[in-house]
Amino acid sequence: MPDSTAPETDPSTRDIVESIIRKGMAARLEDRLDEAMRHMKAAVALGRHSDDPLALARALHGQANVERDRGEARAAVALYLEAVPLCRQGDDPLVYAHTTRHLGDVLREMGDLDKAERCYAEALAVYRADPAAPPLDVANAVRSAAILREAQDGVDEARLLWTEARDLYGKADVEAGVSESAARLERLA
């Protein structure tokens, strides 16, 4: 029987949404996309009934990721576009940067290079301004910008970005990122 003098802990909506998102991410990692989508939709529904814009933004981002996995780029873009302004209202600029970068990735994959470029510029500005930004997140954003520059035939800029990505992946101890960056640099030499 719980101690009646112990304070009750009431989890916040954000905590509950995050818990549901984690379940969805776990299912996604195991390629159980239908289950992942059910979790993400539940997180979005809960987020829509809260007064926490960041909770809703994180849930929308999670659902967008699953839509991407399912090959539904347009649905993913719509969800990211809904999430980005909510991220701006939230208290975590890195969530904004992460969501904006993912939006850029989908736009790039769809061939909308100009909009993707704007997304990457915004995301990188936030990441570079925050000394607490995880090197892996920054590396992934730099990698995305490097891929875009290659697609735009900006070889010199792409080299600079791939060099930065390689260094950041090294700092994050992600050998696959270091190897990919080195191979791209070799190809661009």
Helix-residue proportion: over 70%
CATH architecture of the largest domain: Alpha Horseshoe
Number of helices: 9
Content of β-strand? under 5%
Low-confidence runs: 1-9
Q: What is the β-strand count?
A: 0
Counting copies of identical and different chains, the oligomeric state is single chain
Summarize the structure.
The chain has 189 residues and is an all-alpha fold. It is built from 9 helices and no strands.
Highlighted features:
single chain; mainly alpha; 9 helices; 189 residues; Serine Threonine Protein Phosphatase 5, Tetratricopeptide repeat; disordered N terminus; 2 domains
Please characterize this protein's 3D structure:
The protein has about 190 residues and is mainly α. It has 2 domains: about 10-90, Serine Threonine Protein Phosphatase 5, Tetratricopeptide repeat (Alpha Horseshoe); about 90-189, Alpha Horseshoe (Serine Threonine Protein Phosphatase 5, Tetratricopeptide repeat), CATH 1.25.40.10. It is about 80% helix and about 0% strand. It has 9 helices and no strands. Helix 5 (about 95-110) packs antiparallel against helix 6 and helix 7 runs antiparallel to helix 8. The protein is globular and about 50 Å long. Residues about 1-10 have low confidence and may be disordered.
